[in-house]
Amino acid sequence: MTILEFTTMRIGELAERTGVSRRSLRYYEQEGMITARRAANGYREYDELAAVRAANIRDLVHAGLTLDDIRPSLEMGCLDEPLTEASACAEAIRSGLHRLEKLDHQIASLSEYRERLVDYIGRHQEALAEQDDG
Amino acid sequence: MTILEFTTMRIGELAERTGVSRRSLRYYEQEGMITARRAANGYREYDELAAVRAANIRDLVHAGLTLDDIRPSLEMGCLDEPLTEASACAEAIRSGLHRLEKLDHQIASLSEYRERLVDYIGRHQEALAEQDDG
DNA sequence: TAAAACCGTGACACGGGTGTCAACGTCAAG
DNA sequence: CTTGACGTTGACACCCGTGTCACGGTTTTA
C-alpha cells in the first residue's frame, strides 16, 4: 500500500474509483483492454495506467462504441492518458475512420428522427401542456 | 389477387418490397407493431397500411431505436403514413420526449468522440497519406 | 479464532433484433 | 402425383456488455 513507484490497487478500489463494475473490469481484461499484475495470492493489482484506461473505456463504451471499436485506439496508446488531452496516434486512426462512417450514419439517422419528433412536439405542445404531469 | 379494395400481399412479397426479412416481419407482428389478417389457409395477408408501417419501423429500428421506443408513436397512428410527412400525434410525444433525452445524450457522446477522432486524424493525416491504401 | 469483507473462477441469464433450422401445411405447375 | 416454392410455428444461436449466483480461497477486523 505504501509502495511509492506506483499506486497499486485491487479490483474493488478500481471499481469504486472509475465507476466500472468489477465484472466489467474483469471482462475488459479478458478482452485484453486492460492489464493487471497478479499478487502472490492471485488478486489483480492495477496501476494508474489501468485506471486511466478503464475510465476511458468506460466513457467510450458509454458513448455507444463497442470494445472492438475501441481496441485499435487502445493498441496505439491513445487511451493511456485521460481522453480530454489528445495524444499522438496514427494507425488507430484508420479504423477510427471506418468507425466514424458508421457513427455519422447513426448520428444522422437519430438526428433525423429527433427532428421529426421535435416537430411533433412543437405542433402539439398545447395538448401536452394541458396534462403536464411529466 | 385482383381484389380492388386493398392490395393484399403475403409475407414474401412484403419482405421484398420493404427489405424487411420475413423473420422480422413476424417478429414485428408478434410485438404488436404490425397486423396481418389471416387467409383461410393460415397465411398472413398484409394490406398497404402494414406495408407503410413496416417500412417506417424499418427506418426507425435502423436508426437505433428499439421497438419499445417506437411503439407509442405507432399506437398514436404516427407511423401510418410514410415518415416523410408528419401526421397529427399527441400522447406518443410524451414518451417521445423521454426517448429524446437519451437520444441526445447518445448523440452528444458520439459526437464528442467523433470530434476527438477527427482531431487525431487531422494531426496525423500525413502519416496516413504515406500509406494510403484505405 | 471467528466473522465479515474481499478476491478468484465458472456458469447462466438478460435484452433486442435477427438468422437459421426443423418439421409440417398449402398451392400451383409439371 | 410429385416437385418445388412458399407459408406456418417453435426452437436454438448469435452478439456484447453486464448482472448475478455459486463455491471456494484470502485478508482484515472484531
From TrEMBL, chains A, B:
Domain of life: Bacteria
DNA-binding is among the record's keywords: yes
Family annotation (InterPro entries): DNA-bd_dom_put_sf, MerR-type_HTH_dom, MerR_fam
One Gene Ontology molecular-function label: DNA-binding transcription factor activity
Keywords: DNA-binding, Transcription, Transcription regulation
Keyword Protease carried by entry: no
Cleaved signal peptide residues: none
HTH merR-type domain boundaries: 8-76
Name under which the protein is recorded: DNA-binding transcriptional MerR regulator
Organism: Haloactinopolyspora alba
Lineage: Bacteria, Bacillati, Actinomycetota, Actinomycetes, Jiangellales
